[in-house]
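Ticket #4471: complex job returned nothing on first submit. Input attached below:
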Amino acid sequence: MSKYRLDYLDELEAEAIYILREVAGQFEKPALLFSGGKDSITLVHLAMKAFRPGKFPFPLVHIDTGHNFEETITYRDEMVARIGEKLIIGHVQDSINEGKVIEQKGKNASRNALQTVTLLDTIAKHKFDACIGGARRDEEKARAKERIFSVRDEFGQWDPKRQRPELWNIYNGKIHKGENVRVFPISNWTELDVWNYIRRENIPLPTIYFAHQRDCITRNGQLMAASPFLNMDADDKIESKNVRFRTVGDMTCTAAVESYAFEIDDIIHEIASSKISERGARMDDKVSEAAMEDRKKGGYF
Amino acid sequence: MDILKFITAGSVDDGKSTLIGRLLYDSEAILVDQLEALHASNRKNDDGSIDLAILTDGLKAEREQGITIDVAYKYFETDKRKFIIADAPGHIQYTRNMVTGASNAGLAIILIDARKGVIEQTTRHSFLVSLLQIQQVVVAVNKMDMVDYSEDVFNSIVADYKVLAGKVGLKNVTYIPVSALKGDNIVYPSAKISWYTGDSLLTHLENVELEIDDTSAHARLPVQWVVRPQTDELHDYRGYAGRVSSGSFKVNDKVTVLPSGFSSTISKIEFYDKTPEEAIAGMSVTVHLTDNIDISRGDIIVNSAGQPQLSNLIEADLCWMDTRPLDTTLTYLVQHNTKTIRCKISEVLYKVNINTLEKDHAEDFKLNDIGRIVIKTAEPLAFDPYQLNKANGGAIIIDSRTNVTVGALILRQAVD
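Support reply: We reran it on our side without changes. The output follows.
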C-alpha cells in the first residue's frame, strides 16, 4: 500500500476511458452524440485514447437543429475529416417537414425542444442501443442524480424513481429490445475540469468559445446572438459586443457572456472567478425549477 | 491535486442535507444563479434563514416530501483537494441507495444527533460502512448548538461509538463536534467549541490520507476490449484494453490469464501516444503480451506470483436491492468485472438484522436484506476476497427477466 497518487485529471480521464470501453464491450450498436460543444469534443478525444490505433466502435451522431453557429459546423466537418470516423446527422428540419414536430412561433421560438423528437427518431432509425453523451452531474440538479448508464424506455423516457443501483465500477447495460441506454462518461467532471483537460491536452475548439466581436440583442436579461433564426422586432436593439459562449447549443437559446477571454488561460481564469453557473446561460433551464428533470423524462439528452 | 469521494450517512432529521449545504455554502461552491434560486424558494428554516438542504434535493418528489430518495452527487474543490459527495438517503427503506453510494467512497461521514446519541440507525449506517470497507470514517456529532456545545455530551457519544466501532470492525475513525445549521466546525473552527482542539470537518477532509494498493503481486487487469486495427501496417497488432483495478503491472512482468490459466509476459504497456513502463491501479491502458494467446472480454490478466481464487462456488455477503424477493430456484446473471454469466443463489446461510447486528436464520430475502449466501456460477470466477481486495471482490446480480440490478455481492471465499 502507498499514498494515493493519481492526479485528478488522470483519474477522471481513466474513468471516462473505462466507461467508453464498457460501452464498446457491452452494446451492439452504440453511438456517440456529438453536438460540437466542448464536452462532446472532449468525449471524442477520450475515445481516441480508448480505441486508437483501432477505429471507434461507434459513429458520431449530430442532431442538427439547423440553427447552428456556423463556426460549430466548420469545426465538426474539419474534425471528422481529421480523425477519419463516421458521422451521422439527424436534421430537425426533416422532422418539421415530415410533420412530426411543429415549429414554435413568437419571440422566444426555439428548436431546442424539437430536437428530442429528431434524436429519438434517429436512435430508432439506426437501432442504436447506447448513446454516449457529454452531460455532467455538476450542470444541474436533476443531472446530479442520473446514473452513468441511464436506461431509457421505448419512448426515450428517463424514470428517476426507477434507476438501477450502480455499484463500484460495474455498469449494467442489459436492456430489452426497443430500450436504449444513455451513457455519460464525464459525469464526474466539472466545467473547470473539462477546461483544464482541454488545456492540458491541447484540444482545438470552435472559435465561438473565445472572445470575439458579435452583434447581439438583450433579451430577458441575457445577451443573444443576432441571427436570422431569432425572431426579432423593432424593440430589439442590435449592439456590437465583445462576447464568448460558455455552451454551444441552438442559436436561439444559447446566451453569450461579455468577455475578453481570448486565450484558454483567460477562460479558465474567468470561470474560476465566475459567479454564474454554466447552465445559467441557457434560457431553456429558466422555465421552472424542474425544467431539466421534465425534459429528461421526455427523452432529452 | 487528488479527488476524495465521500458519502454522508444520516437522515434528514440529523441535518445531513444541511451539513452538505453548509459545506458548499461556506466553501463558496455555490454560484450566484443557484443562490438566487435558493433565496427564491419557498422553503425556509423556522427562523427565516435559507434552507441549505434544498441544494441537494434534486427531484420533484424529494422537494415535495422534504426527503432524499436517491443518491445525489455534488462537486466542490478547495486549494488542496477536489471533492465528490455522494449524498445518500438515510432511511432504512433506502438502504440499497446507501450501499450504492458507499461502494465508491473513500471516506464516510456518519452523522449523529447530539441530542439522541448513538441510535439504531447509527448502528445500521456503521455496519454498511464496514461492510463496504470505506477506508476512513468521520463521526460528526451534529446539533451541538442544541446541547449547549457540551463537551460531556460529546465525550459520552464518542465513548458509545467506540464500542460500536469495535463491534462492526471500523478502523480509522475521527470524531468532530459540529453544528451544520449554525456553521460551527464545518468549514471554520468555532469559538463555542473551544474545548475541541482538532480540525474542522473541511480541514480534516482536505488533509486525510487515502491509500492505494499498488503491490505488484496484486496486479489485476480485467480485459474490456481487444484492440485489433486489422489494417495493412498494423496487421498483427493485438492489444488488451482495460483499467488496472488493483496493484501494478510493469513491462516484463510474468502474468497469467484467467480463467484459462495461460501464462505470458508483458511486452509493452500503451497509453495512446505513450508507452509507460508501469501501470498502477486506476489507470486505463492497453497491454501487449509476448505470446499470441486467446484472450477476450471477460478474461482477467493477473500477476503470476499473486493469483486470485478461482471457483464456481463462492460464499458471499448479499445486499438485496429489488422489490421482488430473492428466488433461490431462479437462474440470475452475475456481473463481476467485465464478465457476465449465469448463476444461482444456492443457499442462504443467514440474514443480518442490520439494526441490532444479530444473525437470523432466514427463509426469505427481501428488499434491503443483507446476509451471507452461497453463489453457484456457470463458470468459475477469478475473484479476491473483498476484505483483501475490494476492486476484485465486488459483483452484482441481474434479474434476467427485468434486466434490473437486484443484488450487490461482496465475495468472501471459495467453498471447497
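Chain A has a mean pLDDT of 86. Closing as resolved unless it happens again.
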